């Protein structure tokens, strides 16, 4: 059973897989508590119905060959059962996580989006395929560099403007990436496209 907040088929809007069709499974529960979080309603797991994992899997396989498990903070829950069962049906499994909890599950892609309030565990830094740092203010560039020094050498590095502050921060991110080309820019393209 998992506290399912929502599940939907859409286009991945952020990071390395931007533009790819994927089935999203948003799991309730998060204690990381970012003030700018755009899904604060996910924080309290008790608000979301405990749902049989088999039912979630059956819904997902109808739509896509890629499932993205997100939250909240999905690693608050053990994800071995759901990911092994999706993979046994030839579904690729991606996760979006703060990395603050022990890594469970079998993954084709790990998007690590670290938060200052509760830093990632080393095992998640070591396994991350993608580092996505949300830039809310200028201090976040230093945080991004600190985080980039902790991930593995094959990890793709992204800076993403926080949505409510994008008009101010996007030009600074553009300038930063041009001076530091190891980074790429991620935008929340799904919001520009007006899709979930």
Automatic annotation (TrEMBL):
Gene3D superfamilies: Aldolase class I. It comes from the Bacteria. Pathway: Purine metabolism; 7-cyano-7-deazaguanine biosynthesis. Belongs to the radical SAM superfamily. 7-carboxy-7-deazaguanine synthase family. Binds 1 [4Fe-4S] cluster. The cluster is coordinated with 3 cysteines and an exchangeable S-adenosyl-L-methionine. Binds 1 S-adenosyl-L-methionine per subunit. Catalyzes the complex heterocyclic radical-mediated conversion of 6-carboxy-5,6,7,8-tetrahydropterin (CPH4) to 7-carboxy-7-deazaguanine (CDG), a step common to the biosynthetic pathways of all 7-deazapurine-containing compounds. The keyword Nucleotidyltransferase does not apply. Pfam families: Radical_SAM. S-adenosyl-L-methionine binds at residues 36-38, 72, 113-115. This is 7-carboxy-7-deazaguanine synthase. Residues 17-196 form the Radical SAM core domain. Homodimer. PROSITE patterns: RADICAL_SAM. Keywords: 4Fe-4S, Iron, Iron-sulfur, Lyase, Magnesium, Metal-binding, Queuosine biosynthesis, S-adenosyl-L-methionine. Its cofactor is [4Fe-4S] cluster; S-adenosyl-L-methionine; Mg(2+). It comes from Namhaeicola litoreus. HAMAP family: QueE (MF_00917). It catalyses: 6-carboxy-5,6,7,8-tetrahydropterin + H(+) = 7-carboxy-7-carbaguanine + NH4(+). The lineage of its organism: Bacteria, Pseudomonadati, Bacteroidota, Flavobacteriia, Flavobacteriales. [4Fe-4S] cluster binds at residues 30, 34, 37. Substrate binds at residues 11-13, 26, 70, 196. Its EC number is 4.3.99.3.
């Amino acid at each position: 059973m998992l506290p399912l907040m929502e599940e939907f088929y859409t286009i991945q809007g952020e990071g390395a897989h931007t533009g790819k069709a994927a089935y999203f499974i948003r799991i309730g529960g998060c204690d990381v508590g970012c003030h700018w979080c755009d899904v604060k309603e996910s924080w309290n797991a008790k608000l979301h119905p405990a749902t049989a994992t088999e039912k979630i899997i059956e819904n997902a396989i109808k739509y896509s060959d890629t499932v993205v498990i997100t939250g909240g903070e999905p690693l608050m829950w053990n994800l071995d059962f759901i990911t092994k069962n999706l993979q046994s049906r030839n579904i690729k499994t991606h996760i979006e996580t703060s990395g603050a909890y022990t890594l469970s599950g079998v993954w084709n892609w790990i998007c690590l989006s670290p938060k200052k309030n509760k830093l990632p565990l080393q095992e998640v830094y070591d396994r991350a395929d993608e580092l996505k740092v949300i830039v809310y203010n200028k201090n976040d560039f230093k945080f991004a560099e600190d985080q980039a020094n902790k991930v593995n050498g094959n990890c793709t590095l992204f800076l993403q403007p926080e949505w409510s502050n994008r008009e101010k921060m996007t030009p600074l991110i553009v300038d930063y990436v041009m001076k530091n080309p190891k980074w790429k820019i991620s935008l929340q393209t799904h919001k520009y496209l007006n899709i979930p």
